[in-house]
Batch of 2 targets.
Target 1
Amino acid sequence: MKAVVYNGPREVMVKEVPDAKIERPTDVLVKITSTNICGSDLHMYEGRTSFEKGRVFGHENLGQVVEVGNAVDKIKVGDWVAIPFNVSCGHCANCERQLTAFCLTMNPGMAGAAFGFADMGPYPGGQAEYLRVPYGDFNCLRLPEDAQEKQADYVMLSDIFPTGWHATELACVQPGESVVIYGAGPVGLMAALSATVKGARQVMVVDRHPDRLKLVESLGAIPIDDSKGSPVEQVMALTNGIGADRGCECVGYQSHDPQGHEHPNMTLNDLVKSVKFTGRIGVVGVFVPKDPNSPDPLGKKGEITFDYGLFWNKGQSMGTGQCNVKTYNRQLRDMIHAGRVKPSFIVSHKITLDKAPDAYKHFDARDSGWTKVILQPVAVA
Amino acid sequence: MKAVVYNGPREVMVKEVPDAKIERPTDVLVKITSTNICGSDLHMYEGRTSFEKGRVFGHENLGQVVEVGNAVDKIKVGDWVAIPFNVSCGHCANCERQLTAFCLTMNPGMAGAAFGFADMGPYPGGQAEYLRVPYGDFNCLRLPEDAQEKQADYVMLSDIFPTGWHATELACVQPGESVVIYGAGPVGLMAALSATVKGARQVMVVDRHPDRLKLVESLGAIPIDDSKGSPVEQVMALTNGIGADRGCECVGYQSHDPQGHEHPNMTLNDLVKSVKFTGRIGVVGVFVPKDPNSPDPLGKKGEITFDYGLFWNKGQSMGTGQCNVKTYNRQLRDMIHAGRVKPSFIVSHKITLDKAPDAYKHFDARDSGWTKVILQPVAVA
Amino acid sequence: MKAVVYNGPREVMVKEVPDAKIERPTDVLVKITSTNICGSDLHMYEGRTSFEKGRVFGHENLGQVVEVGNAVDKIKVGDWVAIPFNVSCGHCANCERQLTAFCLTMNPGMAGAAFGFADMGPYPGGQAEYLRVPYGDFNCLRLPEDAQEKQADYVMLSDIFPTGWHATELACVQPGESVVIYGAGPVGLMAALSATVKGARQVMVVDRHPDRLKLVESLGAIPIDDSKGSPVEQVMALTNGIGADRGCECVGYQSHDPQGHEHPNMTLNDLVKSVKFTGRIGVVGVFVPKDPNSPDPLGKKGEITFDYGLFWNKGQSMGTGQCNVKTYNRQLRDMIHAGRVKPSFIVSHKITLDKAPDAYKHFDARDSGWTKVILQPVAVA
Amino acid sequence: MKAVVYNGPREVMVKEVPDAKIERPTDVLVKITSTNICGSDLHMYEGRTSFEKGRVFGHENLGQVVEVGNAVDKIKVGDWVAIPFNVSCGHCANCERQLTAFCLTMNPGMAGAAFGFADMGPYPGGQAEYLRVPYGDFNCLRLPEDAQEKQADYVMLSDIFPTGWHATELACVQPGESVVIYGAGPVGLMAALSATVKGARQVMVVDRHPDRLKLVESLGAIPIDDSKGSPVEQVMALTNGIGADRGCECVGYQSHDPQGHEHPNMTLNDLVKSVKFTGRIGVVGVFVPKDPNSPDPLGKKGEITFDYGLFWNKGQSMGTGQCNVKTYNRQLRDMIHAGRVKPSFIVSHKITLDKAPDAYKHFDARDSGWTKVILQPVAVA
C-alpha cells in the first residue's frame, strides 16, 4: 500500500510499504479516507526527534472498517470510525481511569503510545491507505450516518479537537470566565472553539499570522497580535489589569518570537504573567525531556528558565500533557452530529496522498493559507 | 506592650511597642497566649526579604478575646480563638470563594495579606501581648472548651497544620495512594500527618536532620535521608520504579543540598522525577518573585531552571501557593477536639516572649532538637 | 414608605409601612428601583404557607444605595446593587463554604433566611421603596456602569437566574449533554438559558402554556407540550429511547396535570423516567416539609409517593434545595455585562408599585402573556 | 462441576452442572477458591425476585486462572484474581467512564450485568468449582504474591468492600466529617471501615444485632442500637442536634423495624432526619423497581412514601445505585496488600461448598454469629 514515509530532516516520500493487516484477534483494519498533517508531525519532520527513517507518519485518522479480528465484538465491517492518536489497551491501571494517553501496556517502559510518533511505540501511522488499530473495540469511535459527509469535522476527533478541549479542561475553564490562549495554530483554534462552547465570557488568542488571527475572529474571540506589542500588556489592558482567569499553552517547546528566535520558555512565562492570581494554566503544546538538536544548551536537556517565584506567588496551578482522546471524543462527536460545532472551519486543504511532500513543506513554513491539511489516501464513492 | 521586633538581618529584639487596640468597628482584640516561630519567619529574619526594621513578627497566633468592635456579632469577649495567618475581608471576589490567601481588599495592589509578613500589608504580628484582628467575625475561629488545655495543638490551626493539609489538597492525595513529601520541617511533618489522616497507603518524607526523621517515623511514615543517597532513587526503590502517586514540596526557595549549598530548583526537579506519570504535585514551600540577596543570578529574579520537558512528558500537574487557612481550619479543629490528631507532637519548646531572640537563633541554625517553638506572651491562669 | 403587604389568601395591598432604615453598623439601605414578583411569592399569596398578614413581599431586588452603616467598607452610597434573596451573615460554617442559602446565623433554629419569605426570618421584602440589607458588604453585589440601563437583566441576579443556573449545577450539566427541564416558568426558562450557555447539546423543556413554550423556542431549545401527550415518551423519542443525560425540576410541590389537579410527585417521577441510567437530577422547584392546606393527606406532611426503586435501579443521583445566590451572581453579572446573555427576555411587564395587586392576580392565574413582572417602586431619572 | 443452584424460595442445592469453559477468545476461566454468600443473594433466595430455578448463585468470587482465550493478553494461567460482581465489556459509553455497573453491552435492553443475579443477564455465578469470566483482561483484577494467604481479605474486593466504599463516595465523605450508616451487615461494616480509612471524625452505625454492633465497636466506630430507641434521636444527641454531615444506606428495600415488619422507606426517611442541612446521602442498599411479592401495595410497584419536603428543605443530595467495582478495587487491593485494612474481620465462617444450603439458612435468619460466610469450592494446596 502507499504511505507517507519519513526520509530524514524535512523530507517525506510517498512510497509503497507492506500492507497493514490484522495481526491480533482484537485488531481492526481501517481504510483511511481522511488523515491530517499535525503540528506535532513537524517536530519529527524537522529532525528534532528520534523518529526513524522509513517510518510512516499520521496520527489523526478516520476511515471505514474493512476487516475485524475474531475477538472484536462491537466494531463491524463497514463502520465509519474516528481513531484516537493514542494507542491504548483499555485494561491497564491508567486506561481504566481514562488516562489513555498514558497507557502502561502499549509502549513498555514508558507511559503512552501513538500512531506514527517518535518515542511512542512501533505503531505505523495512518497517512497511508490502511491502518491497523490494536484493541479495535476500545480504540475506534463509531460515527453516525453523516460520517462520510462530515468527515472533515469528524477527523478532528482523532487529535486536535480533543486536544484543544483538553487544554481548556486542564485549565478548568468555567462558564463566564476569561481565557487567554497562546497559539492560534490548529490546536489553539480548537481550544478557542472549546472555550466558547463552554461559555467563556472572553476568549483571547495570541498569534501573529494574519490568516490565523482572522480565524480567531471568526469564532467571536479576540485576536491578539504579539508582533504589534507585548501580548501580556494587551491581555492586561483587556482584563482591567487583573489578568485572564485561565490560560492555555498551544505552542510548545519550539515557540519563537516574532523575529523567529526560539525561546522554549516564552509562552509559559507570558502565561504566568497574563493569568490572574489563583488562575490555572493548561499546557498541551508539546515539550520534550530531551532535545539534542536544540540551539539552546538548557533546551538540549529539556529544561527551561521558568518564572517560578511569580507562578508560586500568584498561587497558580498548571496541568500538562498529551490528551486522553477517549475522555472527550464521544461528547465532541455528538456536538458535531447535532450541528453545535463545526471544527472543519480551520481546514485549508483537502488533497490526495501523493501531494503530501509538498503540503509538509508549506505547512512547516507556516505559509499563509496553509492552516490545516487533510490528506485523502482512499477516495470514497 | 511587649513584642518581638525585627532589627535587621539575624537580629530580633523584645521591646515595648504601642498597644494593639480596636481601630474599626469590625475589629477584635486578642490577648496572645501562644504564638509560634515559623519557618517563613526565617526568610525575613535572615534579611532575605523587604521586611522593615521595627516591624513585629508573628503570624501563628492563638489567644483569648479581650475586646470587640461594635459591629462584631459572633465573637464575644472571653472566646478562645485561633487566628489564620491570612488577613482577609470576607467579601471580595476571592474571599467569597474561600481564597482568603488572595484577598483583594487587605493589601491593595496585591492579592493576599498576612500578620507580620514581608510584602503582605502593614499588619503587625502576634509575637506580642495583644493582636488586633481585622474583620474579627470572619477571621477568628472559635475554639471549644478544651482550648486552653490543648492550645499547643490548636495554635497549629493558624498556619502550619492547614498549610501541610493544603499541600496534600494541592496534590489531590486520595485514600490508598503513595505520597512523597520533600522537607520534614514543621510544614512537611503536618503534610505527612495530613496524608496519613486521609488514608494514604505509603507516606515517604525526605530530609536529613535525624530529629526530624525520627518524628517522621513516629507518624508511621517512611523517613528518607537524602544525605545517604539520591532521594529520587530511594523513592523509586520504594515504589517499584513507578514513582509516588503524589508529591508535596514543603521546603521552598532556600532548599539546599546536604553540603549546604542553595538550589532553589532542587526539590522541584526531584519531585518531577519522584512522582509517577500523570501524578500531581502540591507546592507550599515559599518561592518569591524577587530575591535580591540570592547567591544565584536567576534566583535574584525569582527564576529557576526547571525540568519542564520531563514534567510535561509525564503529564503531571502542579498546584501552588499560600494556604487559604479558613478553607480547612474548622474541620482540622474538629479533628483535634475529637482526639483524632495531635499536631503538637512536633513542639520542642514552649517559652516566654523574652526568650524569642535566642529561639530565633537556634531555629534558624536548625539546631538539633529545635523543631518547633511556641512563644507564650501572656500566661493564663 | 409604600410597600406591597400580604393581607390574607389571594389579597395584597400597597400601603404605608414604617421606613426601612440602618439598624446595625453593617447594614446598607437601598432605594429599590426594580423588584420582581416570583413564582414562590405565589405559594404565600395563595395562603399555602405560614406567611403572616402585614408582612412585606419581595425577594428579587435591585436598586441604588442611599445610606451605609459605619462598619460598611466596600459598598458606597450611590452604588447600584443586586441583592440576593438569601439574607446571610458571611461568617458561619455554611456561609464560609458558599452555602449562603443555609446560613446558620440569620434565622436561628433553621438554616437559611430570605427577604419577605415564609419561615425564613423576620426580614421585610423589597416590594417597597426602600430595603435594609444586613451585612451589606457581604450581601450586596455591585453592578457596573450599565446597571441602570440593564436593570431588567441585572435584577434577575437576585434569584431566578442563579436559581435556574443552580438547577443545572445540581444536575451537573456538562457541555455536549442532553438536558430535560420540567417547567417553563421563569426559573425553568433561566435553567434552559443556563444549560445553553454551558454548551448542552440538546435542551428540552416541558410545559403546556403556549407563551412559555414560545420563549423556550426563542432560546433554541426544544419545547415539549405535556398537554399533547406523555412528556416522558416525548423525551424518550428525542433521545433514542435512552433518556436525557440530566434533568431539572423547576416546578415544585404545586405541580399539576394539564387538567389542573395537583400531584406533588408528578414532575419528580417523570424525571426519574425521563433521565438515563446514571443520570443526575437537580431540583430547585420548592417542596415543603409541611403543607397543611394541601388537598392530599400525604402532601399535608410534605411526603410524596416516589418511584424510588426505579431511581435506585437506574443509579441516578439528585441534588436539591434553595440556591446559594452568591455562588453564581458574580459570574452571571459578568456575562450580562459582556452581552453574552440577556435574561430579561422573559419580562412581560414593568409596572409601578401600586399596580402590584392586579399583577399578582394575573400572574397567579398564569394568565397568558404574564410571564414575568418587574415592579418599579422608585423611578430613577 | 459442582455448584450452588437455586431451587425455589428458601431452597438451594449443591449439584452437578455443566462445566464452565472458554466460549469467546476474550474469556478467562477461573478455578474458584473463595466465594461469599452476599446479603443480596438473600433477596433471590427468599423468592423476592425473578431469579430462575436452576441458576447458579455467586457474585463475590476469587480464584486462580486455569485457562485463557487466545485474545487475552494480560491475564495469565496461574494468576490469582479477584472478580468484580459486575460483568462489563470495557468499551461501551458507560464502561469507558468507569460506570461498569451500568455496562450497556452485557445485558442488552438494561444497563448493568452481574454473575448469578436476577435480571442482570444470563451469567452463572461463582458458587461453583469454575467460573467463566467474559472480557477477562478487563474484568479480572490480578492479586499480589500474598493472594492465597490473604484470600479472605481479597475476596471482599469482588463486591462488599468496594460497595461499602461506594456508599461513602456517593455520600462524599470527607476527612474530619461525621457519618451515620444505617445497617451493620457486611456492607454497612465495610462502609464504616471505609469512612474510617478516609479520616471521618465520627462514624455512627445503626443496627440491632449484638454481634454486628460488636464488630462496629471493633472499628472504633459508635454502635447505635435502634431497638433501644429512635436512631434519629441518638444521632442528634451525638451531633449537638445538628445531624451527621453524611449518611449511608446499607440496608435496602427489605428494611424492617425491631419488631420485624418491613418498611421500605424506613431507613431513607430516618437518614433525611439524621443528616444535617446540605448533607449528602449515599444509598447502596438494594431497591427494586418492582417487587410483586411485597406485603405492601406501594412496595409491589417499587414506590415508597418519601419525606421529600424535608429532604428538599434541608438542601440534601443523594447518590444511589450498584457499585462500579473496578473504580475502587485496585486502590483497595493495594491497601490490603500494604496491611492498612483487613476487611476479613467480618468473616464468621469458611466452609466447603456442600455446606452452602445450611449456611444460606442461617445467614437468611440472621442467626447470631453468622455475619459473613466464605464458601471454598476448590481447596488449594
Target 2
Amino acid sequence: MAVTGSPELLIVMSAHATGDEVDDVVARLEEAGAHAHVTPGREATVIGAIGERELLAALPLEGFPGVDQVLPILKPYKLVSRELRPDPTVIEARGRRIGDHYFGLIAGPCTVEHRTQTLETARAVAASGASMLRGGAFKPRTSPYTFQGLGEEALTILAEAREETGLPLVTELMDPRHVEAVVDTADVIQIGARNMSNFSLLAEVGRARKPVLLKRGLSATLEELLMAAEYVVKEGNSRVILCERGIKTFETAMRFTLDIGAVPVLKQETHLPVIVDPSHAAGRRDLVLPLARAAVAAGADGIIVEVHPAPEEALCDGPQQIPAAEFEDFASEIRALCSLMGRVIG
Amino acid sequence: MAVTGSPELLIVMSAHATGDEVDDVVARLEEAGAHAHVTPGREATVIGAIGERELLAALPLEGFPGVDQVLPILKPYKLVSRELRPDPTVIEARGRRIGDHYFGLIAGPCTVEHRTQTLETARAVAASGASMLRGGAFKPRTSPYTFQGLGEEALTILAEAREETGLPLVTELMDPRHVEAVVDTADVIQIGARNMSNFSLLAEVGRARKPVLLKRGLSATLEELLMAAEYVVKEGNSRVILCERGIKTFETAMRFTLDIGAVPVLKQETHLPVIVDPSHAAGRRDLVLPLARAAVAAGADGIIVEVHPAPEEALCDGPQQIPAAEFEDFASEIRALCSLMGRVIG
Amino acid sequence: MAVTGSPELLIVMSAHATGDEVDDVVARLEEAGAHAHVTPGREATVIGAIGERELLAALPLEGFPGVDQVLPILKPYKLVSRELRPDPTVIEARGRRIGDHYFGLIAGPCTVEHRTQTLETARAVAASGASMLRGGAFKPRTSPYTFQGLGEEALTILAEAREETGLPLVTELMDPRHVEAVVDTADVIQIGARNMSNFSLLAEVGRARKPVLLKRGLSATLEELLMAAEYVVKEGNSRVILCERGIKTFETAMRFTLDIGAVPVLKQETHLPVIVDPSHAAGRRDLVLPLARAAVAAGADGIIVEVHPAPEEALCDGPQQIPAAEFEDFASEIRALCSLMGRVIG
Amino acid sequence: MAVTGSPELLIVMSAHATGDEVDDVVARLEEAGAHAHVTPGREATVIGAIGERELLAALPLEGFPGVDQVLPILKPYKLVSRELRPDPTVIEARGRRIGDHYFGLIAGPCTVEHRTQTLETARAVAASGASMLRGGAFKPRTSPYTFQGLGEEALTILAEAREETGLPLVTELMDPRHVEAVVDTADVIQIGARNMSNFSLLAEVGRARKPVLLKRGLSATLEELLMAAEYVVKEGNSRVILCERGIKTFETAMRFTLDIGAVPVLKQETHLPVIVDPSHAAGRRDLVLPLARAAVAAGADGIIVEVHPAPEEALCDGPQQIPAAEFEDFASEIRALCSLMGRVIG
C-alpha cells in the first residue's frame, strides 16, 4: 500500500467499537478528502488519518460512536513554527533589533502617570543602554476602582519621550476601538496576558503594520501562546515577539511563577524571538535581577522590566518597579551575562 | 482612643522596619484622609488603616520601605455583595426567571450551524420545558483554522427560533464592535470565560439594557469573577447571572474541573443568581447529567447545557452535546431534583 | 499482514528521523518480543507496538534517537479497571456495606482528642444512622509544632467507641511501622491524601486483611489515584474504597476544590466504590452539606464527614467539623437524596 | 498601653460578630497565656494575639463563632529561617562542600541498573569535576509494574563507585524501615518529592547523622518545603539541602515547570543551601543545560543532574539523562557561569 503522506491524526477506537463504527469513521474521513489507514486489533483499532490539516481539524471525530481518543500527531500551528522557517526572525523597530544575537533590553514605567515621571525614567533607561522604552497608557485592572491609565494623554507623553531619547516605544492595546490611536504612536504594540485569548484583538493587530509583543496568558500553555501568535501571523503580520511573564501556580511567595523552561522550549518550536518579563512574574523588586539573569542564561532574546523614579509613589505595581537610579547597575549585570552568552544589546 | 471605623487594610511592617519607616506609612495614610492605628511590637509592628476603600486601594503601600505585607480586610467588591443587598436578585427575560426559587434551564446548540439544526434543537428543548434558548453566533476558538461561527447570519436564525418557541435567547458577545447587533437580538448577553477579564467588554455590557450571563474565567478565582461582575454593575447594569463552567486543573479525564463548591460560596457572597454549565466543564456527554444533578443539589439557580439533533455531525463541541432526542429524559431528571430542593423551572 | 493484537503504544518518530532510527526502534521492540507495525509517512512515521504491556512499559523508547512522542493507547491500570470486572465491588466491614446500591455514611471526629469527645460523637452519629465511625489516631500535620494525634492511646478509645456503638472503625495509617497496631484495631485502614504516593505504605496495606480507604492526593490525577489503588490490589487486597477529598487549585475561598466530576469518571473506570470527603474539601462547616448533597447527586457510593461535640474546642480542623447536635438533620437530608437516587445507607 | 510583644496572629471578626463573641475569643487567648489587643470597628473588629507561637498555633480559633479570618503574621518556621541564623550554612560531606560560595555539582545515574553502568558514569562525572555522585537504589514509581530499583544490591555498587572515585554519595530513602541500610552507605540522604510530606520519614532522617537533600513536593509551596525542612531540623539534624525540582502546572511541553524564582526566594528565607534539579524538571535532555545555566544565574548553590553512559538503554528516565560522553562539556559551561557568579565547585 502506498502511503503518500503521514498521519495528521490518530483515531483510537474503543475496545467495544463495532466494525460499522470503524467504517463510519473511515467513510467520514474519505468524504473529507483524507486517506484512512486502519490498524485493526484485538483490543483497540487505530485509524491514521492522512490529509489536509485544516479539513481534519474541522471534523467532529470525537463525537462519533465508538471513538475513544483522537490524538493529533502534528503541531496545530505552522506559520510560527521553526519547521517552516528554521532561521530565527529578527524584529526591528527604529533601528533597534530583537532576535538571533540581538538581545532586547526593554525598560520603562509600568504606567504613564505624568510627564515628569515618564521623561525622567525614559532618560535614565536610555542613558543606561536600554534598547526600547515601555510604558502603559491603557491598563487592564482587576478592580474597576483602581487607576485605569491616562489613555490617549499618555500616548502623547510617550511620543515625547521617544522624541527625546530616540528609543522605540512599546505600549499596550486593550480594545479594538483604540487600535488606530495606539498603532499611530507605538513602535511595538503589546498584547497583555489577559488578552492573549481575545481573538478579535489578535486578528486586529494581525492587520497592523507594527511589530507585536504578545504576552503569555496567566494560565496558558506554550501551545496556546503559539496558537495566539498564529492568529496574528495568519492575518499577515509576521513580526511577533513572544513574552513569558509568569504563570499562575500554587506558589504565593511571588506574584506569578516564571516558567524559565518556556524560553528553550519556545526557541525550539518557533522562529519568533522570545523575551521574558521578570517584573510581572516576580511582583517583588528584589527578585527582578535574579530572574532577569536566569532569563539571559536560559537563552532569552530580551527582557522587559519596569523602572520608576520613585517606586514608593507609583500608582501601579510600585513593589516591582526598579528605582531609576539603580537601573544602570542592573543593565551592566545583564550586559556582562549577555556577553558570556554571545549576545549584544540590539 | 475613639476608633470610628474599622480597618480596611492591615499593614504589617517587617521585623527590621525603623521607626521612621513606620512614621512614613502613617503619614501617607493620613495624607490620604485615612486614620492609622498602630500596634507596635517587638518583632512586627502592625498598622490598621481606616478610611475610604477606594482611596486606600490606590495607595502603593507595598512599595514603601519597611512594609512586609498589606492585608486587605474587607472584600474588594461591594455592589454585587450580599452584604449590600441581602435578598436574592431574580432576573427576568421575556417572562422567564432565574434566581431565588426559580431555576433556569437554559439549553440549545453550542453553535448555530444552519437553520434546520437550530430550529430543530429549539423546538426539542422548548417541548421538554427549557426556560431559555442558548446558541453561539460568534465563537472564540483557540485555533484560527477552526470554524468561528456564522456571525450575524446566526443572529437572524436565532431570532427566528425565539419567534417560534417564545424562549428568550442567550448568545455570546466577543467584540465591543458587535455590541449593537448582539444587544438588538439577544435577551441575555453572554460573556465567555476567555473574556471574563476583557475589561473593555465588561464596561460595554455594563451600559447595555439586557441581562448579562458572565462565565468564570478558566483559571479565575471566585473573587476575580465577582470583581468582573462588579465592573458590569458599576456601569449601571445590575442584571448579571454568574456561571461556573469548570476551571483548569491537572486533571485530564474531563475537559475542565467543575468547581461545585463555587455554587454555595457564590450564593453566600452575592445576591446575583449562580448557574452551572456542565457541558463545557465535562467536555463529555456522559458526564453532563451527573454534573447537572450535582449542580442542582449544591443549590445552583440554573444550568446551561448544549443540545444538538445529531452531535456526531456538530461543527463544534460534538462530544459534549446531548442528543436532542434525549433531552426530555434529561429535563425530567433535573425537574425531579429541583422539586426536592424546593425549586421550579422559572 | 496478520495483526493479532492491538497496539499498546504508538511511537511517533520526528519529522527528521532517519530510516536507521526507525529500524532501531523496530529492532528494540522485536527484541522485547513485541510486534512493530510501521506506518511510514512524508512527515512523521508512526510505529504501533503490539505486545505485553509490562514489557513495553519498561522500554525506554522516549530516549531513542528520532523518537518524538510515545503515546500509550491502553490504560496503565488493569486490576482495578471496570473492563476487568464489570460488576461493582461491594465492601463489607462488620456487616455494614459500601458499593452498588449501599451508600456509606461515615462520620466521626477529625481526631481523637479524649475519651469523652470520642464516645459522645460516636453515640451521636450512631443514633443518627451513620454506617461507620471515623477518627484519627495518627495525624499528618504540615507543622511539627501542631498536635500530632494521641497515637496508640487513641486506638484504644476508638475500640471502646466501636464496642459501644457497633460501628466499624475507619482510621488512618501513616507509618509502615504502625501497621500491626492499626490493622489490629481498624476495620477499614485509611491512607491519607499526603500518603497516596507513599508506595511502601501502599504495598504494606496491600498485604493487610482489612479494607483500605484510599484518599486522592492533593494534586493527583484520577489516573494516579487508580494506579495507587492498583499498587494495593496487586499485593492481594482487592477491598479498596476510593475517596475524592478535594484538590489544590487557585481558588482560595475553600480549602480545596472538590472535583465532583471525579465521581462519575471513577465509577466508569473502576469497579471499586467511590466516596467523597466534603469536610476536608470545604474546610468550612457551612459548605459541608451542599457538597455532600452534590456528592450523592453525582452518584457517589458514600461520604465521610467530620463531627465534633463542640467544634470551637477541637484541637484540629475545628472550622470544618459539624456539631454533633446538628448531625441528625444532616443525616436526614442525605437520606432523602439517597432515596431519590435509589440508594440506601449500607 | 504597654505592648510587650508583637502580634503572632490577627483575628478578624465578621461584620456580624457580637460583643460576646469578641469577648469569648479574648478569653480563650488569655486562657492560653496570650495577650489580646482589640481594635474595635464599625464593620470588622480585629484582635491581635501576642504570645507563644506554638500555643497560638494550637488554638482552634477559626472554629469560634463570629471569627471570619485568622491571619498568621509571623512565618510558621523558625529553625530554618535566615532571621534565626543570618549566615549561610555550608554543608560538608567527605570534604566536598555546598553553600555560601561553594557550588555543588552533583551528577550520576537516575538509577543503579548494574555495576558497569554505575562505575562508568561515576568515573565520567568524577573526571569532569563533579563534586558528588548521585544514584538511586530504591525508586518511587507511579506504576507497580515498572522497575523499582535494585535496593540493597545497588547500595553495594554505589559504595564501590564512591571507593573508586572518592565522591560522596547521594541516594534516596523511601521507607523508614530502610533507614539503617541507607544511612550506613549514603553520605547525603535524599528525600524525594513524593515523600516531602511523609512526616514520619522526615522525623526519621532528622535523627540521622548524615546531611539530608530534601526535594520540593510536586505541588508544594515554598513555605511547605521550609516546614518539611523544619521537621528535620527540629529533630536535631540541621544539615539540610533544599532542592527545587519543578512543580506541576498546566504546561505539558516539559515534565514539570522549574520554578526558578524559588531559588532567590528560598535564599532570602533560609540559611540552608538551595540547589536545583534540572533533569527531573525538564524530563527532556535538550532542556537540561539551559535550565542548569538559569539555576546558576539565579543564585543556586548547586545542581543535581542525571548522567548515563547510554541513555537510550536506561531502565528509568532515559529521555532526561545526559550521555556520559557529553558531561564534560556540560560541566565546563556550568563552571564558566559559576565563575561569573563568584562561585567555585565545592
